[in-house]
Amino acid sequence: MDTLIVCGSPRRDGNSAALARAIAEGLVSSGHSAELVFADEAVSSFLRDCRTCRRADGTCAIDDEYRAVFLDKLLPARGLILATPVYWYGMSAQTKAFFDRMFCYVAASYPASASVVEQLKGKRIGLALASEETFPTVGSGIVHQVQEYCRYTRGEFVGVVHGYGNARGEVARDPGDPLARARSFGARFFTERATDYQIDTPRAGRVWA
Ligand SMILES: Cc1cc2nc3c(=O)[nH]c(=O)nc-3n(C[C@H](O)[C@H](O)[C@H](O)COP(=O)(O)O)c2cc1C
After folding, report:
1. What's the pLDDT at 175?
2. Is residue 61, in this structure, part of any structural domain at all?
3. For the domain that residue 178 is a member of, what is the CATH number?
4. Contact 78, 3 (CB under 8 A)
5. Domain for residue 204, yes or no?
6. Given 5, 107, 153, 203, which is the most exposed site by the fewest CB atoms within 10 A?
7. 19 Cα nearest atom in ligand 1
8. 132-163 per-residue burial string, b: 16 or more CB within 10 A, e: under 16
9. pLDDT (tens digit, 9 = 90+) per residue, 49-70?
10. Residues 106-120: tens digit of each pLDDT
11. Of 166, 168, 170, which is best to mutate to test ligand 1, by the most ligand atoms within 8 angstroms of its C-beta?
């Protein structure tokens, strides 16, 4: 599996899920494989205090599916795509908890943390957002957080697809056609680079060949 897509909405037929599925279609159309998981299937509990929660052998005692999703699906994947609704100008709590629970395996008190850190580094990261409001900065906090996550994990932030809608699946009626953009984003996910120049970066002067 090349790419893990994590949907942070509780609505299986919602807008984030529609964007996530369209990205998966695009990935598959370009010869890649993708798996969609809903964050709330994996995460049943917030992060706890590791000092009281960890088992004697250092493993995480929270008994849910997160361990399997994180260790067996996310770590081997080359790409991670987060599809989240905008909740209160941030990512959904489900999506945030998915990030927070990484700590159980990244922290030095987890016996295999060095290997986890190595595997978490360098992934391609994509973001899909669904929101009711169309104001340009409605998702900026989320974009910034994911950018910082990429900086921290030496990942590559490939891009963002934002669809507007409120009722379930309403992004399909967004005139900006975010589902088509999501398919295209998925298809180009492993080939596109988001360019990020310094003043002295050598470059051709044209963006497209
Ligand atoms: C708890 C909650 C908070 C929300 N906060 C915002 C918000 O701050 N800005 C916004 O544009 N939409 C907000 N919305 C609307 C959702 O972003 C919108 O309905 C989105 O399409 C839901 O995605 P989903 O279908 O994947 O669940 C909120 C919805 C809920 C349930």
Report:
1. 98
2. yes
3. 3.40.50.360
4. yes
5. no
6. 203
7. 26
8. eeeeeebbeebeebbeebbeebebbbbbbbbb
9. 988 999 999 999 999 999 999 9
10. 999 999 999 999 999
11. 166
- 84 C-alpha to center of ligand 1: Å? 9
pLDDT tier, 158 (very low <50, low <70, confident <90, very high otherwise): very high
- C-alpha span between 170 and 122 (Å, rounded): 34
Q: Whose CA is nearest to atom 17 of ligand 1?
A: 131
Residue 128 lies in a domain: yes
Asked if residue 11 belongs to a domain, the reply is yes
Number of domains in the chain: 1
The phi, psi pair for 53, rounded to 5°, reads -95, -35
Per the structure block, which two tokens stand in for 182?
Answer: 């999501």
User: Residues near 15 by Cβ (< 8 Å), separated by ≥ 6?
Assistant: 9, 85, 130, 163, 165, 166, 168, 169, 170, 171
Residue 206 Cα to ligand 1 midpoint, Å, equals 38
Range of the domain at 176: 3-187
Q: What are phi and psi of 5, to 5 degrees?
A: -110, 120
